[in-house]
Amino acid sequence: MVRFPIDYNDWKEVGRTGEKITAIGLGTWAIRDYGKAFDVYVYGLKNGLNHVDTAEMYDNGLAEEFISRVVREVGRDSIFITTKMMPQHLVSRNKVLRAARNALNRLGVSYVDLFLIHWPNPNLSISIQVKNFEAVFEAGYTRFIGVSNFDRWELEEALNSTSKAEVVVNQVHYSVLNKSIERDLLPYAIREGVTIQAYTPLEKGSVARHPIIRDIARKYDKTPVQIALNYLISRPRVVAIPKTENIDHLKEIISSMNWRLREEDIEVLEKI
User: Fold this and answer.
1) For 35-65, how does the pLDDT look when each residue is reduced to its tens digit (9 = 90+)?
2) 140 burial class (0-12, 13-18, 19+ CB within 10 angstroms)?
3) CA dihedral sign, ordered 109, 114, 119, 123
4) Separation between Cα atoms, residue 265 and residue 98, nearest integer Å
5) CA 20 to 30 Å from 85, out of 21, 68, 115, 172?
6) What domains are there in the chain, each with its CATH number?
7) What span, in angstroms and rounded, lies between the C-alpha atoms of 261 and 231?
8) What are the backbone angles phi and psi of residue 73, rounded to the nearest 5°?
9) Are 99 and 87 in contact (CB under 8 A)?
């Protein structure tokens, strides 16, 4: 028996907001060639994907500026934008708002769909930083808020600390080769209606070389990349955000949706 019920939806709800995003989006960490990536991201957003993830920290804001160019090409209404704020800004609401305005300027938009705390500030209680961060929601700079790199207990405290908004997402490292969140964080997120955004879902290409993943891929006439991503989106409340600068790789990624692994193969993958 698989650890979690299989989720067959390729559009997944963001928290309990009613808003839905595709089970796979595109990340922007460590893009090497923005010119080359531009056509790839535009293609993805016009051919089955609807959300991108970026951050203030990524390339000192250049990744956010890259997304601004993508937005101008595809149109603001057709893209769900997530960005992340560095934790040093969380010491006060004024600093939070200043950082948010700077991010919006880089992105060339008046609001984002989802703003995340990039990781917990170790010098502040979770409660204080989340309460300060809520200012971005109150100011209309974002439709929803969330967190990133929060463990199960930090997430629980964050959920209990809001008054104006709800924490609807926790973005964490999760892959078929790194399943540590399946012990406690993922079950808790599913129970509380929090969406998990899985970053580094392809482990920088390592999934393509794993013999068990390769064997299962042959059974389905799929690639190891598609098996690895399908494993993740088969989980309730999980979306994956791989990065690519290659159009063929992007098409491979998009084809990870619209089908699901069988239960017996998910069980095998759970054990690696």
Assistant:
1) 999 999 999 999 999 999 999 999 999 999 9
2) exposed
3) positive
4) 48
5) 21
6) 11-270 (3.20.20.100)
7) 7
8) -80, -45
9) no
